[in-house]
Design a protein that fits this description.
By secondary structure, the chain is of the alpha/beta class. It folds into two domains: 2-133, Rossmann fold (3-Layer(aba) Sandwich); 142-197, Winged helix-like DNA-binding domain superfamily/Winged helix DNA-binding domain (Arc Repressor Mutant, subunit A, Orthogonal Bundle), CATH 1.10.10. It is built from ten helices and six strands. The chain has helices at residues 11-22, 36-46, 62-71, 87-95, 108-119, 127-133, 142-152, 157-164, 168-181, 187-197; strands at residues 2-7, 27-33, 50-53, 77-82, 100-103, 124-125. It has a six-stranded parallel beta sheet, with helices on both faces. Helix 4 (87-95) packs across helix 6 and helix 7 crosses helix 9 (168-181). It is elongated, with a radius of gyration of 18 Å. It comes from Stenotrophomonas koreensis. InterPro entries: CheY-like_superfamily, Sig_transdc_resp-reg_C-effctor, Sig_transdc_resp-reg_receiver, Tscrpt_reg_LuxR_C, WalR-like, WH-like_DNA-bd_sf. It holds the Pfam family Response_reg. One of its GO terms (biological process) is regulation of DNA-templated transcription.
Length: 200
């Protein structure tokens, strides 16, 4: 049996995925949860073979869960199932060691087949996204991403400096770099564009 934890913040989608996967004779849904923190607790509790997760969720995102699993060297493999068909997200997912990246509009049988492939040690990526991911490079560094994400959440430069243990001037420099690299006129536009591209 392939033992999975399912993390999806939309309850109707979560229920549908759990029901569909539950029909597969070799897949067992151990727990279906609605946010990243609950997903992490379920992973610690069950030590599943696979985590099937969305990217954007309250608490921890799917990417943050994948990064934490990799850092702690857990055997759980990660498959992302999302509406976000963005090359930037896919690149970051691959860097985090994700085994599969599928879009929610994929047929149900494709998801089950993907889970079997990832469980066997393979990789499964939506083919159109795979092409886009290698043609559109993310210009931001990890620290620039952190600073820009917090700016987009409405934090001031001072707040960001306190949160990340940086000086006020360093935060301003990071934001200036983001604005320059993305060829926009202010931090709001930089955040919007980076989100649209999947770089945050």
């Amino acid at each position: 049996m392939i033992r999975i934890v399912l993390a999806e913040d939309q309850s109707m989608v979560r229920g549908a995925l759990a029901a569909l996967l539950g029909l597969e004779p070799d897949i067992e849904v151990l727990e279906a949860v609605g946010d990243g923190e609950a997903a992490w607790r379920a992973i610690e509790r069950h030590r599943p073979d696979l985590l099937v997760t969305d990217i954007e969720m309250p608490g921890l995102t799917g990417l943050e869960l994948a990064q934490r699993i990799a850092r702690q060297e857990l055997a759980t493999r990660v498959v992302i199932v999302t509406t976000f068909g963005r090359a930037g997200y896919l690149r970051r997912a691959m860097e985090a060691g994700v085994g599969g990246y599928l879009l929610k509009d994929a047929p149900a049988e494709q998801l089950a087949a993907a889970l079997r492939t990832v469980q066997a040690g393979g990789k499964v990526v939506d083919p159109q996204l795979a092409v886009a991911a290698w043609t559109e490079l993310d210009p931001l560094s990890e620290r620039e991403r952190q600073v820009l994400r917090l700016a987009g959440e409405g934090l001031t430069s001072g707040d960001i400096a306190s949160r990340l243990g940086l000086s006020h001037g360093t935060v301003r420099n990071y934001l200036s770099e983001c604005i320059s690299k993305l060829a926009v006129s202010n931090r709001v536009e930089a955040y919007r564009l980076a989100r649209q591209k999947g770089w945050l």
